[in-house]
Amino acid sequence: MNQSVVKALKIIDLFNETTSELSLKEISVRTGLPKPTAYRMLQSLESMGYVMRTEAYDQRYQLGLKFLELGHLVSHQLDLRQIAKPLMKRLAEEINEAVHLVVVHGNHATYIEKVDSNRALRLYTKVGKSSPLYIGSGPKLLLAFMSKDEQLTRLNELNNHHKNP
Question: pLDDT tens for residues 136-151?
Fold first, then answer.
């Protein structure tokens, strides 16, 4: 594997719903990269539009608009969403509950489409969000219908990842 690519992707992986902005120091500490290395990686990512600075003087970074562009391209390439959407809408109307379309991606499940219910109290999910296969009803269903061998393999990989991130 190309270590520069791995380092850059480790930086990108730090950004999520709860951590939308990070300083150079936070990125360095969380990735284990020396500050100069993290800074060089951030400069490259910034020049390509994958990250952007929120405030030039305090070196805080957030994901760049390139991800929005790529996400849009990916969403249009997923024919499954287009096929499923009318069926999901009909099901959501019949049961008056949210309906999610979730796919397996490695050891995680990724939400690729959703139809909300009309109820006042709703489950909050976001298209594009991934979670481990043991968290949430959709991911658990995917896991439940795998073969026993595949279930064990994926859960062991998740367990090993948590022990050795």
Answer: 888 999 999 999 998 8
